[in-house]
Each structure stands twice: as structure tokens, then as C-alpha cells.
Design a protein that fits this description.
Blueprint lengths: L46 E5 L2 E8 L2 E11 L6 E11 H9 L1 H7 L2
Antiparallel strand pairs: 1-2, 2-3, 3-4
Amino acid sequence: MPKDKKRAPSSDSDSSGPDDRVPVKKSKPTASAPKPSASRRGDEEPSWHLGKERYVKVREFKGKTYIDIREYYTDKNTMDLKPGKKGISLSCEQYQKLKSIIDDIDHALP
């Protein structure tokens, strides 16, 4: 038996083959430039500009809230500001822990 296991079409199936399947189109979410505001208007995520092209945003993902600190870049084709790979998303618990050690971090700075 060959390693490629191919199913033979069954005669009792009412399917006419691959032509009757409609491919699911995946839509890419378009990211607009983050708004440097801390207010919520509708579904807009609150965000704060940190300088250069870095932002902090409060986001929800799969029903959980995260604090997202991320670098953004300007898309050369659309000139839109888009989130880059460089960044971190902290859970609320991780964010609370970070807040609790801020003084220690400040004292460790030169």
C-alpha cells in the first residue's frame, strides 16, 4: 500500500465532488492607525502613544483583557500604521505584577 492514502470516491455519497465545496474566504482585519486617546468610543480600544511608533492598548481577545505594548510600522503600499511583531501582551495579572514592581525597576535604573 502506498504511503499516500487516497480515499476512493464512494458510490453511496450524494456529493458530486470537490466542485460542490465553496472555499471559505479569510478576511484580513485592516488595522487603522491607533488613536492616541484613553477614552472608549463604541468599540474603539483605548490606546496611548509612547513615542516613536510604540503604543500601549487595552485589548480583548477570546473574552480576556490584555495590555498590549507594541511597535507599529507604516505599510509602504497603503501608508496605514499596522502592528508589528515586536511587542508583548500582558494579562491583567501580569500587568498588576508589573505595576507592583515599578518602584524596584526605577531604583535599578542608572
